[in-house]
Each structure stands twice: as structure tokens, then as C-alpha cells.
Amino acid sequence: MIRGYCVDVTEAERPNRPRRPTLADVAARAGVSVALVSIVMRGVPGASADSRRRVMEAADELGYRPDSRARLLRSSNSRLIGVTFGVQHPFHGDLLTGLYTAAEEAGYELALSAVTPGRDEGRAVASLLQDRCEALILLGPHSPTSYLAELTTRLPVVVVARAVRHRALDVVRTADALGMHQAVDHLVALGHSRIAHIDGGRAPGTAERRRGYREALDRHGLADTAVVLPGGLTEDDGATAARALLALRQRPTAVTVFNDRCATGVLDVLHGAGLSVPRDMSVIGFDDDRLARLSHIALTTVAQDTEQLTAQAVARAVGRLDGTTAAEREVVIPPHLVVRATTGAPMQAFAETI
Amino acid sequence: MIRGYCVDVTEAERPNRPRRPTLADVAARAGVSVALVSIVMRGVPGASADSRRRVMEAADELGYRPDSRARLLRSSNSRLIGVTFGVQHPFHGDLLTGLYTAAEEAGYELALSAVTPGRDEGRAVASLLQDRCEALILLGPHSPTSYLAELTTRLPVVVVARAVRHRALDVVRTADALGMHQAVDHLVALGHSRIAHIDGGRAPGTAERRRGYREALDRHGLADTAVVLPGGLTEDDGATAARALLALRQRPTAVTVFNDRCATGVLDVLHGAGLSVPRDMSVIGFDDDRLARLSHIALTTVAQDTEQLTAQAVARAVGRLDGTTAAEREVVIPPHLVVRATTGAPMQAFAETI
DNA sequence: ATGAAAGCGCTAACAG
DNA sequence: CTGTTAGCGCTTTCAT
């Protein structure tokens, strides 16, 4: 059937929105075949400069936009990577930013699916699967490893920012322990010898960061001074932990905290108790989120390298799809310490140097 | 990308991922036609209980998942609503949560497209358009109204959380002015008579909230005491404004702030200056984001009704699609005041009552 | 360089 | 209730 351009108005009554133009419309207008238009639209070689121009012109006039659904349906590979993220987690926002650029460079598109209080990870993943994603990147997933592992039988899965050990799962994460080494080394270099740690409760990464803290103290011969206080990932958790910190018999002069949000709570309580930071207490966070960068907080913190994290995550996903399978399943990205205003020499050490 | 040592594996030896099953596969396995399978999978009437069971069984065994692209391509209506959101804005996360449930109830799916520092709104919208969304919901868009208006010639557009006036645009927003009335009324009831306001700089909603502040003061006969300090949406903006506040000749006893993040910065500076909140200064924020709810902040704030906001946004979009066109283009949702710990009677008033 | 034609996986008439 | 059939808009041989 020859369908003219967008002139056929069948339903007369409703203010009918014009049907969006298709390849055929553009072809008709440019006086060429649909195949040729397809070639031009994809920017692949196989069309003369002249028809290329004519087609582009026609497409422009019609306001033509390729239909990605149809395109994807036809071509075997969708060049689509599915991403799940938590709406509650600001850090995931930073990761999304990096993922978009990394995916674009690799010639892939992203399909987003949010995990919300009313929409669990399973549903988020299911919708991605329906969209024919070729691979999945899961940001801080909390599903059981067994479920994630099962997913890999369907498509490549890359887990970001959560340490899971499974032979079928790719993991891209920050070297949490190393980050704590950097934090402790910095404090020791400043002259601190009584350094406490506030951990992350049940959050992923807690164990690893705590281990890093202990290792670092050990290396400095300070193992017996280690104090680990229960914490969590919120400001409130930090506030609670800070009170415990202040109640300690022999008060530390510095504290490393599981993350920046928690550290903010700590700072708050310290200030409230009339202590000065860093004079009376040095504080180091983890993540370098927007909170830490605020000038009036100026938190010294261990910064996760989101650019590397996201670039590697996409590289992994694409690698699996290409079949250029890397042997190593886990990519660990070193973080780096960002020194701001919440760390300094301890009062005693300062006194001694005078 | 580190593709190093891995030799390129040829098609043949690559562990070939099984092609995902199609309707035809399920049909073959169940011994019925594809049409019947389609009927069963969509859950529409027109199949016997027996074949329904057989088909479901076959689908299950094959791990069949309908291909939404193909499905959408075929049916004229995609039942897809596109949503753009800012990855920097925590409040958008809350809105997404509501949108998902509202869309589901209306029988629509959501297609998400993020606006990031490296991906502007235009691109976010373009990708949604390619995905054949039937309508667009834009969260706090910052594109010029002319661009948004032009979009409506292609499909219905609902703007959330930004006040734009245009006859072709649906807008769902909070009654910002009313919210400020509530805030000011609350402070006046507590006995405050010198109330300042810190505005939102160039952020959407700034003018409206400032207007509300002025109106409310006026109604209480306090118009001549109005003080508006330039602010913004970040903690730093709040900190800066707070310093200006403290430097004021005749210091106010209370301040309403453009949003919670900004208010947090204000609180911080106040505490740093040795002031006690609310004894020396009452503070009210706007948004009721997670920040405000933290126990050690406990910010009194004007809460936006995200549930209503999102429900109305979806209702609007669907309404335009249905042709059940509402006359009114703007839906304004009343917010409500959440009183926490940062507001109280002013010291002077308290002294007088004794 | 260009065009004709065959589907991708699915839905929606229309028969039976 | 079930099957047949014709496309949705696009890519992709395979001719010309």
C-alpha cells in the first residue's frame, strides 16, 4: 500500500496529533528508497553526497526522528545497557553521570530503572530485561548474591559499589581498605596516635573499611589503641557514635568515619559539645560527596574515583559482550585522600613541638 | 579501556548465549498458536483456562519474557511516559518514587532520562522522544519556555515543580506562596515580629516564595520589617546568607529559608556563631527533604506533597492522552507545615511572659 | 550507488 | 475459544 505523506486524516473529530514521520515518509519526500534513507540516517557509507544531502533535508523538514524501538527490534544487538540505581542515594547520581559519558564513548545507550521504596530491585531488573538490554550494571545492589548470579545466565552483569564474590559476576568497586590506609597514614603523619573508627553498621563496605583501619594501625604499631564504634550511614548514626566517642575513657584525638554523611553527624555533635575541629579532634570521612565539599564543612575525606568506577563498569559490560573476556572478575579502583579542613595536628603534639 | 591480553574469540568458540525465547517458541512448546500465547501473556480475556495454564507453563519453562520493544512497536500506543530528572536533586528522587506508583495505577510505564552535568535537558528529552513516549513529565526543567512549548506540538508535556505560564503546557506545582504564609503565620503565632527571608537566587520558585513571604508579613501588619537576603539552593548559599543575617543592624528573631539544604547552611553558621536555635533564632526550611528529618537537625519546614504532585502529574499526562482535556492548565498543590525543633518563641517574647 | 524484499517479535483484525 | 494473517518502522541481504 502506498501511504502518502502525513495527509491521511481518518479520525476527523479529535484534534489529531500528526502521526510522526517514518523512514518511508522521508524516502517519499526525498524521492529515494527507504533503504537509502536508512543508510543516510545511520551515517554509514553507501550513499552519494548528493542523496545524503537531499535525504537530510527531507528528514529535517519533516522533523523526522528514528524510532529506537523499531531500530532495536530489527538489529540483533540493542546496544543498550540497563542500569539500576537507588533514588535515595545521592552517590548513585554521581555514578549515573559518569555512566552516561562512558556509555556514549563506547557507543551504547543507557536504560535507567530506579529502585524506590515501592519498587524493589527485582522489578527494576525485570523491566530492564524486557527492554532487551544486552548487559546490566547494578549500582549498590542489595539482592542476594544467588539472585545476581542467576541473572548472569541471561546476560552479563556488572556490580558497582558492592563487594560480592562470585565467579560469574563482574564487580567494580573502590579499594576501601586502601582508602582507610591513606586516612590513617595521614593522621599518623600529623602526629596522632589515638585514632578511633566509626563503622557503617550493615552497609556494604563496612567490613572492608574496618579491616583497612585495623591493618593501618597495626602497621604503625598502634594496634592496641584501636577503637571501633558502631555507626551507620546516616547523620543520626554519626551523632550517636560521636556521643559514644566523647564518653570514652581515654579520648582519641582523631576519628575515621564510614562515610561523609555519618561524619557530618559526628561533626555536629563535636561542635555541640564545644569541641573545636581539628584542634580537639580530627575527622575523616569517606566518599567525597557534595556534603563534604561544602565550604562550611570542608571535610577531609577519602574520595571514590567515580570516573574510573563508571568507565570500568561500562568497559566490563562491553568487554563481556564483545567476548573479550577478562580473566579477572573484580576491578578495584584506588581512592585518594582529599585533605580539607577537618584534620590537623593533635593539640598535644602541637604543644610538644613548641 | 583495558582490553589487554585477551585474544579475540571468534563467534564459534564463544560460549554462545542462548537466543531468548520468543512468542513462537512458547507457542510451539505449548502446542498452540502465537496469537493465543499473546492473549495469555497480556492477560486479556479470550483463552480457556486450560490453554492459559499450558501456555504459562511453557513460558515458565522457557524463561520467556515479552519483548517490550516489539510490543510497543506493534501497538499504536506505547503506554510509555517519559520522565526527565536531575541527578543532582534529591527531591527528584522522591518524585520518581511517586511517579512510578501513579503510572502503574494508570497502566503506564515510565521511561527515565537523567539530566547530568554532561547531559543537558535537550538530550534527555530527545532520547525519550526516540523511545516513542506518548507524553513527557519534566521535573524542574530549566529549558526556556519557548522550547517546552514547542515540544507540546509533538506530545503532551507536564512540567512539575516549576512555574511556567503557557497555554499549551500543563503545570503541576506546589502552592509556594501558601507555604510561606503557613511558615510566617506559625512564626507570628509564636510571637515573632522581626522575620527575615533568604531567597533561592535563580532557582525556580524563588519569586513565588518571596512573594508569599511578603504577603504574609503584610497581612500581619509587618510589611515594613521585611528583609530579603539573597540566597540559593545549596548549603553554602545558606551559610553566606546567614552571615549577612547576623550582620544586620537590627537582628531578626526568625528566618524563613528558600529550601532545606540552604537552611542547613544557615543553621550551621548560627551554631558556629554561638547562637542557639530556636532560642536566639527560629529557622524554617522548605521541601521536607531527608535532611530536614534528621533528628539532630529536626528542621521545621514546609513539606511539599509529593504524592499529590506525582499523582496529578500522571493524571494530567494521561488526561491529555485520553482527550479528556481539562480546561485548567495549572494544578497547584497546597503544602503543609511540619513543625520540628528549629522554631520556638523569641527570647524577648519569652522574657515578657515571665 | 540505489532499490526491492524479507523479516525482527509482537498485536490485532478477522475467520473458523 | 483458537488459528491465520497482515503489518508496526526499521535494518539488511541481495539484486540491479
UniProtKB/TrEMBL annotation, chains A, B:
GO molecular function, one term: DNA binding
SMART domains: HTH_LACI
Superkingdom of origin organism: Bacteria
Alphabetical UniProt keywords: DNA-binding, Repressor, Transcription, Transcription regulation
CDD domains, alphabetized: HTH_LacI, PBP1_LacI_sugar_binding-like
Record bears the keyword DNA-binding: yes
The UniProt record lists the keyword Repressor: yes
PANTHER family (alphabetical): HTH-TYPE TRANSCRIPTIONAL REPRESSOR PURR-RELATED, LACI-RELATED TRANSCRIPTIONAL REPRESSOR
Name this polypeptide is given: LacI family DNA-binding transcriptional regulator
Source organism (scientific name): Pseudonocardia charpentierae
Taxonomic path: Bacteria, Bacillati, Actinomycetota, Actinomycetes, Pseudonocardiales
